[in-house]
């Protein structure tokens, strides 16, 4: 008898529920950018996606992070991921600055 595959937990999640539950942090001030985050703000993207969306090279991304002019990645295990809405905000600031 074949076993029936189980539904992935994400497939049963309600759209209002965030993808990641916020965890309390100790000894860190709360960032004003983190207030009232919706589930869409939790989308994490890879460096490859960042490079494609920004048309920057890897070295340029990390140089700008070091200079404090580009969103810092979050660590997921040993992998670096960027919050998609932070990238969007960075691009919007660049567009506003050009006028």
What this model shows, in words?
There is one protein chain. Helices cover 32% and strands 10% of the residues. It is an alpha+beta fold and 99 residues long. It has a domain at 52-99.
Annotation keywords:
99 residues, alpha+beta, three-stranded antiparallel sheet, 3 helices, 3 strands, 32% helix, globular
Q: What radius of gyration results from the CA coordinates?
A: 17 Å
Helix content: 25-40%
Sheet with the most strands? 3 strands, antiparallel
Report the strand count: 3
Mean pLDDT metric:
78
Beta-strand content estimate: 5-15%
Overall, the morphology is globular
Amino-to-carboxy terminus distance = 67 Å
What's the SSE pattern? EHHEEH
Helix/strand class: alpha+beta
Poorly predicted spans: 10-14
Q: In oligomeric terms, what are we looking at?
A: single chain
Strands of the widest sheet, in order across it, are 1-3-2
How many helical elements?
3
